[in-house]
Amino acid sequence: EVMLALEGVSKTYNKGREAEVRVLQDVDLQVRKGEMVALVAPSGAGKSTLLHIAGLLDTPDAGTVSIGGVDFTGLSDRRRTIARRREVGFVYQFHHLLPEFTAEENIVLPQLANGMPKAEARLRAEELLARVGIGERAGHRPSAMSGGEQQRVAFCRALANEPRLLLADEPTGNLDPATSERVFEALVGLVRDTGLSALIATHNLELAARMDRVVKLDQGQVVAG
Ligand code: ADP
Ligand code: ADP
């Protein structure tokens, strides 16, 4: 069963202008249900562009993007936004947590926005924090936490609304190697526990090798890694 499918996806910035950049050219990529795929590429190769298109944040110039067998390519911005909130969790290199809220509140808020009752949202936040090993940090604000802890909270927030697809852009890229290793393990554990499908961009080949499959972005195309 295919969870994410990109078919013939192309993207060019500044088309027809001097600054034209052809980033993606006829990209085909599939991520199956429960599969973790690493996306490896040098900086500037188009990883963020590919993840944004896969996560319905950006539209391709050509080609189709399907999540859970549904082709979202032709839908309005509003309908794609609704689909994105339901289907996709995002993690970035920087955590983007709300500084004035605690770890738990940062995970509760997207659930409330999604119509979840507060008591259930809090319970789910606590469960997620416990699963990534920082249950005792629930009441701390991001500024009182280490970089690795902040990133674990960001993982929990991404999974708060039970998406079917996780997209991560260098999720441990800001951390020192030892922390990166442990935080990455926490992410893998979380994804495996929930049976999520994940596409994770990373420069770290050792971490990439622990996933089910590695693909590379090379000259605008996705090839086996
Ligand atoms: P990566 O995430 O692999 O570093 P990006 O997808 O961010 O790569 O960028 C790929 C290329 O497209 C880079 O040359 C970048 O400068 C360019 N680019 C990215 N976004 C835009 C944009 N909105 N407008 C113009 N060029 C862009
Ligand atoms: P990342 O660290 O995820 O690769 P970047 O710093 O490359 O992100 O880009 C941050 C934002 O700026 C993204 O939304 C990207 O699309 C946009 N961007 C990147 N390169 C360019 C560019 N050359 N011109 C305009 N926007 C760009």
TrEMBL record:
What name does the UniProt record give this protein? ABC transporter ATP-binding protein
Q: Which GO terms describe its cellular component?
A: membrane protein complex; plasma membrane
Out of the domains of life, which is the source?
Answer: Bacteria
Q: What PROSITE patterns would the database entry show?
A: ABC_TRANSPORTER_1 (PS00211), ABC_TRANSPORTER_2 (PS50893)
Does Cell inner membrane show up as a keyword for this record?
Answer: yes
For this protein, the record's SUPFAM superfamilies field holds: P-loop containing nucleoside triphosphate hydrolases (SSF52540)
Q: Name one GO molecular function term.
A: transmembrane transporter activity
Q: Which Gene3D superfamilies match?
A: P-loop containing nucleotide triphosphate hydrolases
**Record keywords: GTP-binding included?**
no
Similarity comment: Belongs to the ABC transporter superfamily. Macrolide exporter (TC 3.A.1.122) family.
**One biological process GO term for this chain?**
protein localization to outer membrane
- Where would I find the ABC transporter domain in this sequence? 4-225
Alphabetically sorted, this entry's keywords are: ATP-binding, Cell inner membrane, Cell membrane, Membrane, Nucleotide-binding, Transport
PANTHER family on file: IMPORT ATP-BINDING PROTEIN, LIPOPROTEIN-RELEASING SYSTEM ATP-BINDING PROTEIN LOLD
Pfam families named among the record's database cross-references: ABC_tran (PF00005)
